[in-house]
Amino acid sequence: MTNLVLLSYGSQNEYRRAVLAVLSFFSYYQVGENAPDVRVVLFTDSSEYFAKYLGHLPVEYVILTSAQQTEMMGTVGYRHRIKAVVVGDTLVRFPQDNLLFFDSDTFFTQHPGPLLARIAPGVSLMHTVEFTFADQAQVALPNGKTVNDFNKLLEERPFALSRGPEQFSRRQQCWNSGVLGLAPSVAAYLPDVYQLIDYLYANSHWHIVEQIAFSLVLQTRDVIEPAIDYVYHYWEGDKKVAADALLAETINSDFLALPVGAQRAAVQALVQRLPTAIPAYLAAHSEIGTKQEAITAFNAGRFGTGYRAAFFYLLKVPNDRKFLRDVLYHTKRFIQR
């Protein structure tokens, strides 16, 4: 058995992305056709939404309350820590099963059977290599420091982990964790992942610390293999905006009225179209990229660039109240520096 694990909460756009992620898997993978057993384990705050779209599939819901989400973020209050806890909880709950976690902002582009078959003790999956830490040395971090300072944090002393003192290096790779394929043996590594997340986030506030912790632990214990040939991951903020608009054209009430076979065909057509449709949508709506430029700059502490991009975005979309609130939030950060 392989558990297909997703985490989806907070908004209808987020739910719709997760629906596509699950349906894209099953548009290729047919339950009962001599394929290994799979089960979806979906951590969410709204099982009702998903039941409408996924009622014909083997789905087990785990309801996450606001209080549980807060607890999972730990004492450091790091939102992406929830993902690591969800992964760990599933490995503990099903100690004999492989696990394939995929972010809600992903979809499968070919039959995932060969991908599932690669998960084994000593072999883990992640989406793709993004960088080595040394290559990012001059990138700014939200706490006003740079990745070079983060690299010094990695290297200044060994970490006391489950295997004893362990030294990390800026020459190691950071993988994207939009996909995590893990054997049951990885459950023993999870305390190390949590420890690294809490320490590194408290000392950097780098929003990708969760994937950094998985990358460091898995590459020092297992062989990591890429899943990028099977899964498209639209993690960037502007791509999410484009994908949300495109998904709403297909994943809707009309879709629910279709027979299951027609739904599968519609999903396959959509996932084949999205890799080119997303950049085309962004090219036709340049203001989305301008907004994302502002958000990225603010998060990295580059306030001049952020305000300049925010100004040009608000000239085109002056009534985006949520974005205005975000600008005010970052203005307070700037004043407090």
What this model shows, in words?
This is Nucleotide-diphospho-sugar transferase domain-containing protein. The protein is an alpha/beta fold and 337 residues long. The protein has two domains: 2-232, Spore Coat Polysaccharide Biosynthesis Protein SpsA, Chain A (Alpha-Beta Complex); 286-336, no CATH class. Helix content is 50%, strand content 18%. The chain contains 14 helices and eleven strands. It has helices at 12-28, 47-54, 66-72, 81-93, 113-117, 147-155, 190-202, 209-221, 237-248, 253-256, 260-284, 286-299, 303-316, 321-336, and strands at residues 2-8, 38-44, 59-63, 98-102, 106-108, 123-132, 159-161, 164-166, 173-182, 223-226, 231-233. It has a seven-stranded mixed β-sheet with strand order 3-2-1-4-9-6-10, sandwiched between helices. A two-stranded antiparallel ribbon has the order 5-11. β2, α2 and β3 form a beta-alpha-beta unit. α9 crosses α11 (260-284), α9 (237-248) crosses α12 (286-299) and α12 (286-299) runs parallel beside α14 (321-336). The longest helix is centred in the last third of the chain and has 25 residues, at 260-284. It is globular. The model has no long low-confidence stretch (mean pLDDT 94).
Give the second-level CATH assignment, the architecture of the largest domain: Alpha-Beta Complex
Q: Regarding quaternary structure, how should these chains be classified?
A: single chain
Strand order of the largest sheet: 3-2-1-4-9-6-10
CATH topology of the largest domain: Spore Coat Polysaccharide Biosynthesis Protein SpsA, Chain A
**Number of domain modules:** 2
- How would you classify the helix and strand content by structural class? alpha/beta
> What profile does the largest beta sheet have?
7 strands, mixed
Determine the mean pLDDT: 94
User: What proportion of the residues form beta strands (DSSP E)?
Assistant: 15-25%
CATH class of the largest domain: Alpha Beta
Backbone CA Rg? 20 Å
Terminal CA distance reads 51 Å
Could you give the count of β-strands?
11
pLDDT below 50 for ≥5 consecutive residues: which ranges? none
Helix fraction, binned, reads: 40-55%
* Shape call: globular
Q: State the order of secondary-structure elements, H for helix, E for strand.
A: EHEHEHHEEHEHEEEHHEEHHHHHH
Secondary structure tally, helices = 14
